[in-house]
From TrEMBL:
EC number: 3.1.1.-
Example GO BP: cell wall organization
Keyword terms, alphabetized: Cell wall, Cell wall biogenesis/degradation, Hydrolase, Secreted, Signal
Top EC class, one word: hydrolase
Subcellular location: Secreted, Cell wall
Residues annotated as signal peptide: 1-21
Name the UniProt record assigns to this protein: Pectin acetylesterase
Role, per record: Hydrolyzes acetyl esters in homogalacturonan regions of pectin. In type I primary cell wall, galacturonic acid residues of pectin can be acetylated at the O-2 and O-3 positions. Decreasing the degree of acetylation of pectin gels in vitro alters their physical properties.
Family according to the record: Belongs to the pectinacetylesterase family.
Recorded GO CC terms: plant-type cell wall
Length: 389
């Protein structure tokens, strides 16, 4: 009997770990760069480690993480020619769309600064090495940590569950704090973000531009933030259902662009395809046409594939059947159609490659390396620089 009890305990622990892992992937959106420890790849054995700064003034503004703790960022000061240039990188990490998933999230680094790493490596677009990041290495580079679960746009609370949905306030408190530390004197500033942070960089792009004098050069970059309102393999809309919960739960609708909400429902205005054509600030969109996160969690999630027909394909495109590849190619076409009008503006820029990837700016091998993705003989980093000039 004792041995049998131990067997059940082991099974229970294994199941708990499995559930925890599943929630972490689906609710906090572990991207490929995070699978490599925040983008530390074989190309960068000795990355710059940057400490966490909590925003002490945020508490008085009600700008707190899901659990009520102070938000924070990592800042490496610029110098030389980059002393008055600022790069703000909004961290990604999925969304929480109901009380259960948000309560889970507030006990992780995605919902509480208590669990955030005290130091993180700066690689890719955040690297301090000129040979790995030739155009931004000496800028002021800031990574704003993500602990609200609604792409820095919510503003409400759930007292019963002790949840604070204050993403919009966190965004404003962080910008105000950085302005007081010299960002108000920026000659040029770039708002960027990866994944859910890439969506946030689109949502806050014009707001960011308006924080600076007209004499400052201000632009935005969205990396893997072009989430599509696409049909999944079951004929449903998994991501729309998720977004509908996020918008309703976290009070996001009040902070969405009014030019969109006067014509569409709030959930539709959380999808970047309905926003990008109305953004006045120059915007650069970087995305994989076969975005791996969207394939795994929006197009072919387990919930839409109960019999596991897509299981191998969603994890490894080399194992996709011909019909599955045609479905994924349809997704690629849908993405290209979504940015067709946007691409016609000379103020905007694009880098849409056919990689199975998610987030490419913070990984050194996709950001700036000998074998990095190229379009028309331009590396990603060079393509963005061209649009910045």
């Amino acid at each position: 009997m004792m041995k049998l009890s131990w067997v059940w305990i082991v099974i229970a622990i294994a199941f708990l770990q499995l559930v925890t892992g599943f929630l972490d992937f689906n609710e906090t959106e572990l991207s490929l760069i995070e699978a490599f420890d925040f983008g530390v790849s074989k190309l960068n054995y000795n990355p710059l480690m940057v400490g966490l700064t909590l925003i002490t003034s945020a508490g008085a503004k009600g700008a707190v993480c899901l659990d009520g703790t102070l938000p924070g960022y990592h800042w490496h000061r610029g110098y030389g020619s980059g002393a008055n240039s600022w790069l703000i990188q909004l961290e990604g990490g999925g969304w929480c769309n109901n009380v259960r998933t948000c309560v889970y999230r507030k006990k992780t680094r995605r919902g509480s600064s208590t669990y955030m790493e005290k130091q993180i490596p700066f690689t890719g677009i955040l690297s301090d090495k000129a040979e790995q990041n030739p155009d931004f290495f000496n800028w002021n580079r800031v990574k704003l940590r993500y602990c609200d679960g609604a792409s820095f746009t919510g503003d409400t609370e759930n007292k019963a569950a002790k949840l604070q949905f204050r993403g919009q306030r966190i965004w404003l408190a962080a910008m105000e704090d950085l302005m007081s530390k010299g960002m108000r004197n920026a000659k040029q500033a770039l708002l960027s973000g990866c994944s859910a942070g890439g969506l946030a960089s689109i949502l806050h792009c014009d707001e960011f531009r308006n924080m600076f004098p007209r004499t400052s050069k201000v632009k935005c970059l969205s990396d893997a933030g072009l989430f599509l309102d696409a049909v999944d393999v079951s004929g449903g809309r998994t991501l729309r259902s998720l977004y509908n919960g996020v918008v309703g739960l976290q009070g996001v609708q009040h902070n969405l662009p009014r030019i969109c909400t006067i014509r569409r429902d709030p959930t539709s205005c959380f999808f970047p395809q309905n926003l990008i054509s109305n953004i006045r600030t120059s915007l650069f969109i970087l995305n994989a046409a076969y975005d791996s996160w969207q394939i795994q969690s929006s197009i072919a999630p387990p919930s839409a594939d109960p019999h596991g027909y897509w299981h191998e394909c969603r994890l490894n495109h080399a194992k996709c059947s011909a019909s599955q590849m045609r479905f994924l190619q349809g997704f690629r076409i849908e993405m290209l159609n979504a940015i067709k009008g946007f691409s016609q503006s000379r103020e905007n820029g694009l880098f849409i490659n056919s990689c199975f990837a998610h987030c490419q700016t913070e990984r050194q091998d996709t950001w700036f390396a000998a074998n990095s993705p190229e379009i028309r003989n331009k590396l990603l980093e060079i393509g963005i620089l061209t649009e910045q000039e």
